[in-house]
Design brief:
2 copies of one chain form a homodimer. Chain A is of the alpha+beta class. Chain A is built from 7 helices and 6 strands; from the N terminus they run H-H-E-H-H-E-E-H-E-E-H-E-H. In chain A, strand 4 and strand 5 form a beta hairpin. The radius of gyration of chain A is 17 Å and the shape is globular. Chain A starts with a helix and ends with a helix. Chains A and B meet through strand 2, helix 6 and strand 6 of A and helix 6 and strand 6 of B. The first copy, chain A, binds a DNA duplex through helix 4.
Amino acid sequence: MKDSLIELHHTADERLRRDGQRYTANRRALVDALGDTDRPLSMGELLERSEGMAQSSAYRNLSILEDAGVVHRLVTSDDTARYELAEDLTGHHHHVICDTCGSVLDIDAPPELERGVHALAESVAATHGFVVAHHRLDLVGTCAACASARR
Amino acid sequence: MKDSLIELHHTADERLRRDGQRYTANRRALVDALGDTDRPLSMGELLERSEGMAQSSAYRNLSILEDAGVVHRLVTSDDTARYELAEDLTGHHHHVICDTCGSVLDIDAPPELERGVHALAESVAATHGFVVAHHRLDLVGTCAACASARR
DNA sequence: CTTTCTGCAAACGATTTGCAGCAGC
DNA sequence: GCTGCTGCAAATCGTTTGCAGAAAG
């Protein structure tokens, strides 16, 4: 994730333009923040990393970036959203979620597991006429920090 | 889910008592509604099925039922929560989520897929000291109704 | 009787939106 | 200059909470 940063910005710019949007400093800052981490960030974390940006602008821009297919918004269990780069920019991955503190970690699943999920998706498509666009696999539990804090 | 309804109420009663709570008519109505469907219900759907219950009572009781381990609350992508019976009451299952209308369908995954997920959970526990309590596998896409409405 | 529930209305917190000024092209 | 972006403050919306009366044990 070092020199691919340039490419990341290029892609973001391109996708925004396709939507008739500009790639402004605020939007670049958000993409920078998301490109610089290995886990989804909450609004608070994004604002910390985006010196001086109004919260409303962050929300607005994240929504626009999501429409452009640059950013993905996810809701875990607590009621605050988290944001990450779109999957085609980061590679497919899954999440480990601490339901005590809400923190999220990225992980990869072995190929045979992914194959199994795709097979399931096909069977659902066949049975229910449901078009599966993507899937989500979360491991939910207690992170090391919260586990030790609990005692 | 026919004569097990009696057992369901018995279990709910028991778990509430364990928490020093009463199994009131309102709570029974909520459990009835959740026991009578094969998919998670939103607050609106629950209120429709619970004649005359105040919204605040529904929220409060669902939260108490969740604490007692009778109900499980889930958040998908839209920002409204949905509720279902706890997994040990319904059996383990997964969700198919329409990201257009937010509707949710229950499905089962084949055992070998479940085994794969458990193996992944163990490897995460070993690597990150994360205690995996359960997992979530969602297939996200467009339901048949929304797919046909879209054209 | 005492304690827990309930409905109502007010409070909350995350997110959204209206608006007037500033910035990109 | 025109159009879109920004910050600010006000508005929304799902959800939570305080309170006084009703119900369960």
